[in-house]
Amino acid sequence: MARQELARYLRERRAALSAREIGLPEGAPRRTPGLRREEVAELAHMSVDYYVRLEQARGPRPSPRVLDALAGALRLEPAERSHLFQLAGAAAPPAARPVRHARPQVARLLERLPGTAAIVTDAAYGVVAWNPAARALLGDDLARHTTNLARRRFLGAGRTYETSSTREFGSIAVARLRRAAERYPQDPQLALLLEELHAGSAEFRRIWQTHPVHAPGHRAKTLDHPELGRLRLNCDVLLVPEDDQEVVLITGAPGSRSARVLESLAVAATPVARETT
Question: Could you tell me which residue ranges the HTH cro/C1-type domain spans (predicted)?
Answer without folding.
Answer: 34-81
